[in-house]
User: Fold these one by one.
Assistant:
Number 1:
Amino acid sequence: MSGRLVHIGSAVVDYVYRIDALPAPGTEKTASSFARVAGGGFNMMVAASRTGMRVVFGGQLGSGPNGDFLRAAFVAEGIETLTPPSPLMDSGNCVAMISSDAERTFVSWPGAESVLSLDMMAPVVVAPGDWVFASGYTLSYPASRDALADWIEALPVETPFVFDPTPVISDIPRPILSRVLARTTWLSCNTTEAPEIAGPGDVGAVAARLLADHCPKADGVVIRAGTNGCHVRLADGTAQTIAGFKVTAIDTNGAGDTHIGAHVSALSRGTPPFEAARYANAAAAISVTRHGGSSAPTDHEIQTFLSQVTDRRAQAGHGRPMHNCQKA
């Protein structure tokens, strides 16, 4: 595999509480468990790293206990930090409440990751063969969005740039969002975020508009649909809905991040796009059967999972799964 994943995003400390259901207003719940873990962009980086891609971080970590905690987590996963700690503040945090149906609710507090300047990013040098990733969270912060958009636009033409708008897409000023989308090589979003950009419609129409009207330089777009897999449309007009995998989910936190990290990793080593999407579907399916946002599987675990699925289908006489294919 050539090149690195250069992640220009935000990492925070997650405080994760497991509860049977969200408390009603004015009431209190006692959690069944609590954990303090690295989160935010860390989850996507872990997915790429565990599937064989070298990952470096070019965002900002803080100079307090949260920043120290995140740096230790990065070291444990073999992720190099390119920028020095922020002299201004500590890293932010996020309270995540995971209910018994595996859904999650978040409350976040931004820190050093929300302040980014071109001077701070000076140590981040993109080399030939690298892939670059950014998320909507960093673009939603008023003190980082302009510098990051400028930096993205200045990337070498040949450098693939992957963008995830994230659930905070409505907090990104449309001019900033349009600039970033115009430079995007691969857009990965979910079924809520995609129409936020391109307007309502069925997934095929939305994907087509994303490419035609918003991401004119993109190789393709991915619209993630949870247990239903994802829809992929390429610049040449070919498209497939890649089926998901049926598993028993216990924690969906970080599933989207895992999908993106695994997809980028597969693409970077030359895996064809539709095959890479199936690989990412498998990675996300495995991750939701485990506790924690950074529960991404390794490449070996994904390959074993896919082999077992293929064996079960063959034994059942189903053969290869059928996908919805189209070309416009």
Number 2:
Amino acid sequence: MDAFILQILNGLDKGSAYALIALGLTLIFGTLGVVNFAHGALFMIGAFCAVFLQRILSLSFLTVDETRTDFLGNPMKVETPYVVDWFGPELGNAIIDWSVPLAILFAIPVMVFVGFVMERGLIKHFYKRPHADQILVTFGLAIVLQEIIKYFYGANPIPTPAPRALAGAFDIGTVIGFDANTIIYPYWRMIYFAFSLIIIGGVFGFLRYTTFGMVVRAGMADRETVGMLGIDIDRRFTLMFGIAAAVAGLAGVMYTPINPPNYHMGMDFLVLSFVVVVVGGMGSLPGAVLAGFLLGILESFASTSWATSALPGINQIIIYLVAIIVLLTRPRGLMGRKGVMEE
């Protein structure tokens, strides 16, 4: 039972990333009808927003510490971060330590701006083009963004730790009646899961309970009729593209302590996220979220030793096997609208 619970937790952890990226993909497809193969790059850019902010906060200058000497007896030169000099040792070091959570505030305007530029500068010209053209141009854009990140940050993963206060693990087993040290899970992974639920709930609440969201949902159902009412639906859809980019970027920011950012991490998640969208149903927001968590849990169980010993490599292909089965039996996905991808 403890192993079962641990695999569920691992699956929810993976599923959180899948669900957040797939949610943004589905927002773009549902509003604009665009298959955006650059969405994984937005996840990557969000992760490097955290890296960038951490490096900015860690900028330092050399000072002479008279209380310390080197092996020759000379006063030692030490590096002092500017934020420590400005705000004092306690607050300054705390700001550096909490750079990843602080990167959320930094990433939101950056990602909205990136999404706006991407949509206005390139993608708007492909609204009425075939999906194959959309895939080619957005995939090319993803490669360009990936190479830009590689040029500035190199090819190696960049460790971006969580705050020290959240770097440990929580003994979940004692809470649910197991012996101590039976089920131990990292704090940050639990925070990432909770964070994903907040973002998902925020997006659904925004679409359901705000006037802007209701107009967007109406435009998703019948764009021409909404436009005939004098509503600038194109401007709202552009803002939704920015929101979708912010969702992907925030997913990347919070994922950095789990998996050190590297220039190809967007591509690693992109294919899996598209599989999640297809399984959940193209254009279905609840389907994207549900499929993200279900496939994350399934992948977690497929990675166990008993599964890989019985079927070697099953952990690498299980998601694709599920996608094949769903496409053969229900082409529109688990919660897709009737007629979508069924022609």
Number 3:
Amino acid sequence: MTDTLLKESPLLVALDKEKTVYDGFISVQEKDFRLRISLPPDHQLKKAKLHCCWQLKQLLKNYQDIVKQRLRHSSDLVSFILELRTILEVALKSQPGWLSIPPPQYYSQLITEIEDLGWNKLLFIDTDFHTLQLSAEDSSGRQHAITVKLKPKYPAEAPECSADLPVPLAITWTPQSTLAHIHSQFLLIVEALAEFWAVLDEIDEHTWVLEPEKPTRADSMRRIAIGNSVSIKLEIDPRHPKMLPECCLLGAEHVVTPLRNKLNANMHLWNPDCSVLQNMKDVMEIEFPSPATHEKSSFSVECGICYAYRLDSAIPDQVCNDPRCGQPFHQACLYEWLRGLPTSRQSFNVVFGECPYCNKPITVKMAIQKP
């Protein structure tokens, strides 16, 4: 077997006299992959262990079950190596160009560009020098990051850029562009959004934000607590952050209706020179509970069906309209509860039924499944 193995894979050799450990390379399509095979003392192939280089692991990621099967059923090591080579040939054909390594000038140019930009602006770079993360600080001291994924033909081929922004990231690129060009364009974009983030920072600081639980720089929505089981969703326009945002009041109808009437009646009082938060107070004629005056637990009322506050990322947003009840529910919980009642009825995407607590009429829209 040793002679046959040497003929088939001359770069894979035994490291011990017992021939239980083989180390070296397996060659496929003029590419060499580092491989080590450890056999048990009885040379049972089904108990062998494979140690692969990272390229080989990546290539065999979708073929692991097949490799394990061939280990169990191959008659000897030579047969397994031949079968492994066949699997690798199939994998390489299905992933053309996956192992294309950039030329040396790619790396030297990249190092030069990082030096010109400043190593202090490099947050991360992977071991392949293909993915970088650059930091940027706007004029208000907010920290931002942009992820840059370079292509093998960089800079002739434009990189993929992504960042935590509420608007699409548009980076202009030419074959003469560099990382410094990306960074400078990114700075201009975040500066243009400075007023938008200032609006949200004020809301986050001075109100109890119920959703999102942990806002990112890309989030333009805030659900703010007004009172027990009463809140308002604000959708801030990133391009016009000081204008009247889209508003959606959530809560029992007898509580929400007066607030909605004030909002509609006083909309003309909106002053773009004032902050969004101050405008909302003036237009709705209310004071929002703040971390300085209220505990968040005052607004974290559990769902009356699942007895939890958060269900995945959702919080209770359906409320019984009876003033004597006012029990909140998750939309998904209430929908499933009502759908299971023999007395409930459905019209299009709305289910009509009775409140689980007070038996008064209650309705809920079908829960939208997130992709």
